[in-house]
């Protein structure tokens, strides 16, 4: 957290779904916003000027940080989600707690540069090669929490239960690093994890493929006892649905509902291939859905029913997942653009709705309900998008949110503030001095990615 109170002056800020000019944002040493005041035409003495549109920080609700090492190398040749997964599993064998920390620090620093102030790390790479326990069985998870701290962003570590290769199949050799053997052993290990000022701990079911049905309730109960969030990959591929039908005679969403996994603390990730009944189950339960449009198109997954899920009652949030790119504005835009391609109709989601998905709803899904709004009492997490770049110049300030969502990229992020601390200043990360070099070195250290 910042050590002193600080006053920021935003040239424009997004308050209550409106672009307001000249907004003072005062932060406390606790990392919270203490006051906001609009219509202040110039930065007062001592205030830090933020030129552009200041938005609530982006919450990247679904990340597997090590997938970042596959960028570009998986863009050669053809294949499917399943062939991509083979490359990812080979890479997973390379990581140690030290190399995981170095890579995660660099990736989280890239996220800070993209305006991301909080990440949900869906973490299943728990053990050493062959499944041997580290001296600290949570060495890998703690490396991720330390990496987020070193990069200056918040993290919710979604400690993931991953037990089987498929329905009724034991883990294959490349998956032994992921498995605790039983759900009870997963629960015991995960119980030793602790959060902190900028870290929280949640749970995840990798998928109905990787967690047997009779183990689902154990994970759900673990999360419920702690009032922790619970995430699960859901129906990313038709193949998962078909295998679930063969094993259980029902869809993955129905299986999760029948075992108490759905509910308002739960987030279903992807939710791409759903029946109308599935959409109703998720919506009625208040289960959030995390869409990952840049990954879903990168992996040829398909287009999820975003508008139908929203209409059914599911809050929508966003994640960069495999990090083919790390750009929450691209994720936000992708939700609307995919809906347009599927329906041949424009205008399903407003810029305001998409910004809420990129911020407030993502924070809620990650267990930080006090964040995601620029208002007193909220966490002082915000980011500033330039309005004078070649992509964003031209529109009047009243259309600044539309310019940010529909034209800006992560390269237009100029400032990122986390808990009142100025982590990215004028496009420069203040804690990781050379983020491209940190990425290059940490990825080059992994044999499978070269
Ligand atoms: Zn994922």
List the helices and strands and how they pair.
Blueprint: E1 6-15, E2 18-27, E3 33-37, E4 48-56, E5 58-63, H1 81-92, H2 97-113, E6 116-123, H3 139-151, E7 154-161, H4 183-190, E8 199-205, H5 213-226, E9 230-234, H6 238-248, H7 252-258, E10 266-270, H8 276-285, E11 288-291, H9 293-298, H10 306-312, E12 316-318, H11 328-343, H12 351-358, H13 360-365, E13 382-385, H14 400-406, E14 413-418, E15 421-425, E16 428-429, H15 435-444
Helix pairs in contact: 2-3, 2-15, 4-5, 7-8, 8-10, 11-12, 12-14
The structure holds zinc ion.
The site of zinc ion has 6 residues, from loops.
What can you see in these coordinates?
The protein is α/β, with parallel strands linked by helices and 450 residues long. It has 2 domains: 6-56 and 372-435, Urease, subunit C, domain 1 (Roll); 58-365, Metal-dependent hydrolases (TIM Barrel), CATH 3.20.20.140. The chain contains 15 helices and 16 strands. Helix 12 (351-358) crosses helix 14. The two termini are 37 Å apart. Bound molecules: zinc ion. Zinc ion binds at residues 62, 64, 122, 233, 269, 321.
Structural class: alpha/beta
Task: Give the domain tally.
Answer: 2
CATH class of the largest domain: Alpha Beta
Largest sheet, order of strands side by side? Answer: 3-2-1-4-13-14-15-16
Ligands (ions, cofactors included): zinc ion
Q: Name the shape in a single word.
A: globular
| Separation of the first and last Cα atoms | 37 Å
Question: How much helix, percentage-wise, in residues?
Answer: 25-40%
**Topology, number of strands:** 16
The CATH architecture of the largest domain: Alpha-Beta Barrel
**Taking all residues together, what is the mean pLDDT?**
96
Please tell me how large the radius of gyration is: 21 Å
Oligomer: single chain
Q: How big a fraction of the residues is strand?
A: 15-25%
Number of helices: 15
Main β sheet profile: 8 strands, mixed
List unreliable stretches of 5+ residues.
Answer: none
For the record, what is the CATH homologous superfamily label of the largest domain?
Metal-dependent hydrolases
Task: Report the CATH topology name of the largest domain.
Answer: TIM Barrel
